[in-house]
């Protein structure tokens, strides 16, 4: 297995219905090519649902199942939707409204440990989510998204923002090492 640190910063538009929500995604990829090549996340899909550990709430009173319901997996994932999951195996860890940066080791920690790092929805003046692709306690890729706050999980902007960040950490092709600048 070869791990190659890389940081990509992308500004994109999270598209929903007729409106666009400007968002910024900062991605850290360890470029664990063997995990992507072996399709480790697809191997974890059960009954057509991909596993996601949800920490925090995107909006007040919205639980894990409701937060995942409007989301569609990117084309790289052989699933029709997402389902709440425990803290084991290959999964996405979705942390809504993190209160600060998390270390590499913390990104895939058990949900109970991560709750201390979560703020209340709407307190930071926008929408923030830290999304990590994990294999057990090992982080494969992480993306942090900041955007204008959607109105609710039924707002198309919410699904658009989350689709962009999920596509970033679950790419269609195997991440590869970029040429080094002279």
Automatic annotation (TrEMBL):
<feature type="signal peptide">
    <location>
        <begin position="1"/>
        <end position="19"/>
    </location>
</feature>
<keyword id="KW-0732">Signal</keyword>
<protein>
    <recommendedName>
        <fullName>DUF4136 domain-containing protein</fullName>
    </recommendedName>
</protein>
